[in-house]
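Here is one chain, start to finish.
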Amino acid sequence: MLKLYIANRNYSSWSLRPWVLMRALGIAFDEVLHRFTPGADDDFRKLSPSGKVPWLVDGDTVVWDTLAIGEYLNDIMPDAGLLPADRLQRAHCRSICGEIHSGFTTLRASLPVNLKGHFPGFKIWSRAQADIDRVCTIWRECLAKSGGPFLFGERSMADAMYAPVVTRFMTYDVKLEPRLRAYADMIMALPEMQEWIEAARAEPADIEELEVEY
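Its structure:
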């Protein structure tokens, strides 16, 4: 059976992505939780080649990058629809997945994932706003081309990759135009997202250095 290693649900945006994707696909897997704690980096390095979560174990195979896990799942389940069937749409999907995977550093730093938190009226600085505007452009273009309700019409890897951004927008009260708000609300309402969020809220002891204090 597949084994997925994750960290604290309240903070680990990278863990959320493959977890909700596998839950949505009905893939059976064992979950192993390694919490973020002071000095835990060495423990992570003993288990993961990168020293980071998530990582997926399939027999003797270890896949230790979120995007690579998505591609691996697509390889072992090619009919699951993780990537669009159309070649051009598939390239587009991979492009926006790659963009969120490697970019938006100011958004990540300024609006860290915190599922327990809610900060109405949160001050968003201009560089973070530029990242938000780019995400909105991506969503707007995808939904216009596909007709929705998901970014590529049917659910795909892209929706999982952007799910933590949706939670950031909710946590920090980011204002969205109606169609984008409807998309965000739909993602938040997915059963596996609700399961993850409920478990995050039940986690003990917030980690002070990962909490927003400004």
